[in-house]
Every structure is written in C-alpha cells, then in structure tokens.
Specification:
single chain; mainly alpha; 83% helix; 0% strand
Length: 215
Amino acid sequence: MTVAIPEFALILGILGTLLLGAISPGPSFVLVTRIAISGGRRDGLAAALGMGAGAALFGALALLGLHILISQAPWLYTALKIGGGLYLLYLAYRIWRGAKEPIGSAETESGRAASSPWRAFGFAFLIQVSNPKLAVVYGSVFAAFLPPTIPFWMLIVLPTAFFIMETLWYAIVALAFSSRRPRALYLRSKTWIDRAAGAVLGALGGKLIAEGVAR
C-alpha cells in the first residue's frame, strides 16, 4: 500500500510534538530515574517498556475518541484527574515511607530478582496512565495534525510509533541513570533522594486533585 508523503509528514509532526512533551521532566521521568538508579539497568529498561505501553494505550484511546468523550463529559475528566492524583499520592507515600530502608543484601534481592522487572513495568505503566492530561494532549495534537477522517493504517501505525518513541526515550534515561556513578550517589544519599522524589510525586498528585476539585 502506497502512502502519500504528506501523511508521513503529518506523522513526523505528531511524533516530534509529543517527543518534546515526553522529554520535559515530570512524574514519569522521576519514577524511571529512581527505578534505574535503585534497581539497575534491567529494572530501568522494564520501566521504559511500561512507559511505552502506557503511551501506546492512551494514544490508541485518543484516536478512538477519548478526547471527544472527555470534552462531552467533563465529570469523566474530573474523575480521572482525582483518581490519578490519588495514585500519585499513594506512590509518593510508599517512596517516602521506604526512604530510610536499605536496598538490601545481594542474597535478599536475589530471591525477588525475577519479579522485580515486572514490578518496575507495572509501576511505570500505572504512572503513565494515571495522568489524564496525556489523553487530552494526544487528542489536541491529533486535532491539530490529523484529517477529519483518519486512515485505518494510522490507527495501527501511530500507537506503535508512540510505544517505540516513549520506550526509546525512557530507555536512554534508564541507561544514563543506571550507570555506576549515579547508583553510587543514590546509595550514599538514598534517604534524601527518595524523599525528594516522593515530595515531587506528592506535589504533582496534589496538583491533579486540586485541579479536579476546582473544575
């Protein structure tokens, strides 16, 4: 099937715009860096996959009309905001509470090694989908770039491209922060780094809830 060049240009415009949003620091960046520093390269890459999966899900939902549904039912957006904010507060509490706990010996960690990447993937995926703004951003970008009638092939190509783009970006982040020097810094300053990460996530969660209540 031959696809016109302008349609590829539209896809590049969409991906470029969304990549700028992904690069800007937020709760996703905070979580991936913390997982990569504390859990190592494997957990960091698993978290990157979770971010990619969450982006692909929201991208697909936005293509299928979630943005339109939210605009027609403001209460849904409010509920999503409050729910996402509560999850971020819960995650911030867990990180803050465990700030003083040691990473653990190699013997202790080896028993949990098999499930650790799955936990990292799950946390990252939930962080990604806990922010309803992602669906609104995707929907807004689609409205700006896409034609009123979306070709079927775009419904397949775009979510796949979102998965690849977000996974690659957060894989770069994970690889950068799982190297020896950042890990050594984390182990020396774990309590304060974890509390800072928890405070950032808690502030972002509180902001989401406040915005939802104020609507």
